[in-house]
Amino acid sequence: MLTGRKFAAKFRDATAREAYLTWSAGQMFIYNESVLEQRFFDSLSRLVAETERHKQPVRKECRIERPKPDQKYAHFINKAERPWLSQVPSAILGIGAFRFCQACRRAAAGLASRPKLRAIKDADRHLLLTRDYFTIEPSARSGWYELRFGSARIPGGTILFKAHREFIVPAMVSVTLTSKALFVSMSYKEAEEERFPETEKEMIDRLQQYSEEELIACGNGIDRGVVRPVQTSNDPEPYALTKDQLERIQRKERQRRHYQKRMARCEKGSRNRAKMRRKVSRTFDYRKNVINDFAHQTSHALVADAKVQFFVLEDLQVKNMTRRPHPKYDDSGKALPNGARAKAGLNRAILSSGWRKTEEYLKYKAVKTGKLVIKVDPAYTSQRCPKCGRVERKNRPTQSVFRCVSCGFESTNADYVAAGNILMAGVKMIREGRLEPKKVKATLRGKPARATTKKLGPGRADVMPVEPERCPGTPGCQTRHEAGSPSIEGSGH
To answer: Strand runs (DSSP E) across 92-139, as ranges?
Structure first.
């Protein structure tokens, strides 16, 4: 499995920063020159094709075939015009051509667009280093490491980064300088056979050998809601956003509405409108970053529990749950209230809870740790009593309180009760050896669903007319259901 690490970093001194800027500029220069060369041959090929299309003779010596992308870069280097290129190792310059060929292969495979020119700015740099041009050693400070780049002929500098996780020194390291910070990224392959020996079916077969009490002890049911985004069956305390995060999200929401009003008053195509659009985008980015951070931290805390071997989630259809309500009209065609405003607030709360992100992060982190994630049918998990098993809507008098109308069981945390029911449903699935939930009919207490009739407008029939059947293959034949018409057997057809 391909995994990666990304650590925040900083330059040791100004010399390291200057060397980094020079090396990254060299790589970007070779990349951009390769893009310009490809554009030249593309335009020349189109010119030749246009000439041939108009039946104009083209001499054989003028026919030029577009060369395939390669990693040749020496013809781009002119040290007389650009003496600073002599301060960059040739292998580092060659990586610029290598990245161009990679971009061409991705474009040919349909994974990305065609290579484009990249602006060389001090606030947006990217440097790719091979193993021959960098070393990583522990620093004197605890948790910090030194990335020294350079060669015997051309010195570089030292970049300090703090590693919050274990890592392996890879064959290539990427150093990115943005307008906000400096980052060191690395990727390498892990041994999947050693770390992930079991498949889902094998884990199910192993867990089937456990008793029900053992499965309850090593499982964790997860209930996702709006007030409590993540509630587990192992801990009554839910996982939720902090008060500070919620206040910041609300503040960003107010800023977004303010910027949108200002953008509406700006002239289309003006610089002020573009500026307001960027500000609106940043407010959305903040909410997305907060949700991603919450999903990462929550999923990491869940899989870190050593005694838990499987997780049980509800099979929620978030896309269907966040749909807008259909409009309602009266007999005269006037629009009626359909609760769209209240539903919009609920949809916004659901999307801000990070249900989908938490599920995605939990799945891949569970695979890394050799744990199982299964889904169960969410029907009546919040209305079922864990003591007597009675399903009743009145068991939830409020959002937070659960009180069984049959046995009197009561709890002030209804989501905690729902998480326990989800866990029991998962235990039942494991005991049966199933990986997919059974789709049960949406009925309450085993009663069949009540038949409903479609309300039609005034003057419309209750039953849609059915087109009468006609004899096949005979145009203009009478219908078989008309009075006095002969049957098919006696019609002679």
So the answer is: 125-130, 134-138
